[in-house]
Amino acid sequence: MTDKAGRQTPALLAAGVTVLLWASAFVSIRSAGGAYSPGALALGRMLTGTVVLGVVWAVRRAGWPPRAAWPGIAVAGVLWFGGYMVALNAGERRVDAGTAALVVNIGPVLIALLGGWLLREGLPGRLVAGIAVSFAGAAVVGWSTSGHDGSSVLGVVLCLLAAVTYAAGVVAQKPALRHASALQVTTFGCAVGAAVCLPFAGQLVSEAADAPLTATLNVVYLGVFPTALAFTTWAYALARTTAGRLGATTYLVPALVVLMAWVALGEVPGLLALGGGMLCLLGVAVSRGRSGQATAVSGPTPVTRTAAAPASSEAARSTSASMPQS
Questions:
Q1: By C-alpha distance, which of 62, 88, 244 is closest to 169?
Q2: 3-state DSSP assignment of residue 240
Q3: Of 136, 144, 238, 286, which sits 20 to 30 A from 194 (CA to CA)?
Q4: Model pTM greater than 0.85?
Q5: Domain named EamA: which ranges (predicted)?
Q6: CA-closest candidate to residue 62, choices 312, 321, 237, 306
Q7: What's the chain's average pLDDT?
Q8: What is the separation, in whole angstroms, between the first and last Cα of the chain?
């Protein structure tokens, strides 16, 4: 028992690092968004992440992903590393970081929905109920933050779009992880995302020339820590504990974002927005309740090591199914 607890401690610490870094990303995006447009910010983050992951990939001599993995890598790269980043950046220009985190956190519900439909993993009643509750919460957030020009409502819609593209990207990525390692899929997915954002290269160059140093450092931070390091610590943790236990840590992200945004940016969502955000989280909790079908989308609960499936690949299968990315 003591030995088991000793093995769990590093995993829990790694999960804590991931949660903190992904929560901090919402605040960094909000901070850098004053100097960088959504596309330029996404490109800068993806280029930085690709360089860092590429160095790790080269040092570890991970090799090229098999041909069978490329469709999933490409789709995930376009939707998750590309589309999600641009939509989230655009959304955070119109709503505060805490509100964005609350809305985007319905991503796990959408992953379960798409997994049940596209991967034939079932659509239990709890999932349908959770979706209804989460979207009701998003509607409350949108109504409570609406301004005379409708910019806040548009921000909530963009955050919902970010959640949809994130969920679709994760579902597309899961089959790829049956053929390639987590490092391969993440590295080349990030590279695809950078390629998708290349049309914003001109904006990135011109905006970087005028941006304050703090904004540029935020872009670099997003690429190095929430993008590259956080994925590594998450995979490390998932290889050493259950997906269900780690999935529970995702509920900490919006609360941490609200706290970080309050300290760093002086932003706190209004009471009605917070209430709507709590509805979003309640919907996630309902949909992720204990049930054979409801939990199937996250992959096998115990992560085991077998000759046929190395721990890194087995862990990667469910790495992102319950984590709100940023």
A1: 88
A2: coil
A3: 238
A4: no
A5: 11-141, 154-286
A6: 312
A7: 77
A8: 36
